[in-house]
Amino acid sequence: MAQMQTGAEGMQSLPALLQRNAAQFADAPAYREKEFGIWQCWTWAETAKEIEALALGLINLGVNEGDFVAIIGRNRPYLYWSMVAAQAVGAVPVPLYQDAVAEEMAYVLGHCGARFVIVGDQEQADKVIEIQDQLHQFEHMIYLDPRGMRKYDHTQLHQFSHIQDQGRAAHDELIGELNKRQSKLDYDSTCVMLYTSGTTGKPKGVVLSNRNVIQSAKNSAEFDHLTQGENILSYLPMAWVGDFIFSIGQAYWCGFCVNCPESQDTMMTDLREIGPTYFFAPPRVFEGQLTNVMIRMEDAGALKRKMFHHFLAHAKKVGGDILDGRPVGLMDRLKYALGNVLVYGPLKDTLGYGRIRVGYTAGEAIGPEIFDFYRSLGINLKQLYGQTEATVFITVQPDGEVRADTVGVPAPEVEIKIDDSGEIHYRSPGTFVEYFNNPESTASTKDPEGWVATGDAGFFEEGSGHLRIIDRAKDVGKMADGSMFAPKYVENKLKFYPDILEAVLFGNGRDRCVAFINIDLTAVGNWAERNNIAYASYQELAGHPKVLETIRSHVSAVNKSVAEDPMLSGCQVHRFVVLHKELDADDGEMTRTRKVRRRIVEEKFDDIITALYDGSEKVSTVTEVTYEDGRKGSIKATLTIVDADVKPGAVHKVAAE
User: Fold this and answer.
1) Average pLDDT over residues 323-335
2) CB 332 within 8 A of CB 317
3) Among 298, 201, 195, 296, residue whose Cα is nearest residue 241
4) Out of 2.30.38.10, 2.30.30.40, 3.40.50.10490, 1.20.1050.10, which CATH number does the structure's domain 395-474 have?
5) Are strands 68-72 and 116-119 parallel, antiparallel or unpaired?
6) What is the three-class DSSP state of 551?
7) Are 215 and 432 in contact (CB under 8 A)?
8) What is the tens place of the pLDDT at every residue in 58-88?
9) Which of 20, 472, 572, 625 has its CA 20 to 30 A from that of 406?
10) End-to-end CA, the chain
11) CATH second-level architecture of 477-656?
12) In this predicted model, what pLDDT tens digit does every residue of 409-420 receive, in sequence order?
């Protein structure tokens, strides 16, 4: 590949960073992947050769500068290589969510006009073939896993390894062209195009430049003292900006190793084997793991259970202070050290968190109790606030200043201001270039001075300078009595309970709040088995009287907590239903990153909301659902509406108005 400078001034593209890493860290591991139960490994020198062969093969196939190359599949080294190879030939990589249905893919592929698509396996290839007639610019598809692909028409289909073989064969003929294209890449070249999750409309193509990605990776790596020796597990969707910055941006800047699990099902096992030093997970992963821990402890013997809860209570008292370097008495430290030997250490190793030096969560707010649980074990878990348009980083939490109720201070080189309505605006080296083919949205989001409106409402705390996020600006409203309505605040408190997977609060403009709740089938199913309660489906378990009573006790406890906040006490839940189905991205109720599409849920279940407010005790409903094979169907249910305990003070306030 092209010879580039190895000094910082030459590091203006991913291929340039790859060259540096191949020279400086030649024999160090760059990628690992577990396949057939065995970890395969590629060094940085080997990675550079693999990417060069693919880049030459892409030129040989006809990929031109400025072309869009879509990449669809689970996290695999080959697909990460595809993104860098696409950039090396002057094309733009566009990763898509692998669990997207065909029509979602059709929109993105059509919108960017992708001529080339690289897919992981037959399932992804079938989706593209299904929508092929809608894609006027589509020309060639490259597939990685050949299983099941033998009898397909290969006029436009090519095996990944064959494209690499053709690239190697044409090396002498095409290397000059590849070098020429690479030498043109600079900070202003497009690095990647990522589509937003589209909570309020069609996804938008966010164009990020090399400056956006490399400067953000550099600043964040220096902030957390990341080194070439880190190990990460890359398991989150490659189409998500967080995975791109951790698994490509920071990995290439620092030269550390990216480990890909064998499958989603083996992720937890692979996590334990790798023992990452730097780890990122959205709140739902930490919530899910805590749920599993609590389920297992319920099944443990009495002595073990007693010891676990005893030391956990001590960790809750002093663990966070010890982690942050604050003064803690000698006896408390000794007891914590004993707890580390007997409980915390083994628990962290079981989770795969034994070696974590820096851990992050973001995407949405994490329940304070969940956050404090992990920190009390000695895991340096922090929150960051960011978005695709910022190339992730807007705020970060410095070590020693980590709290559950704030998202920290502005990230390095990031400026933040809050307008009169409370909306947060930022400006930084990571500020996106534009929304692809959408100048109106670009202009409404980013002003001529480079300030970006986040759509989130928040404020800076006096004294600490930390930013607190209240909610999405569009979701923050007012109750009928004028008090604040901030649904996310209450939803996150509800989701702390292991048996609650999802919660959606309603109440804007109303005299009281009501909620939809999804139970966590794993947690509640385990409880049902231990109590010899038979059930045939999610729907049956969700409507069981004992389940409804348990959820009622959780809602009442959350109400008690919410009532203590004078600003948000009006957001207590008066009535709720446990929904008969899980909210699902395939049904359009959530995004692929599992954010609730609030407006769609409100419209779809309008009959249930009406019943929650009109005093009904039950409501019968019919809901359209999408099955795994894409077929549509419907499910009928009669739901019980449950009244929750509300703290009297808040009720009097509403009644008085």
Assistant:
1) 94
2) yes
3) 195
4) 2.30.38.10
5) parallel
6) helix
7) no
8) 999 999 999 999 999 999 999 999 999 999 9
9) 572
10) 72
11) 2-Layer Sandwich (3.30)
12) 999 999 999 988
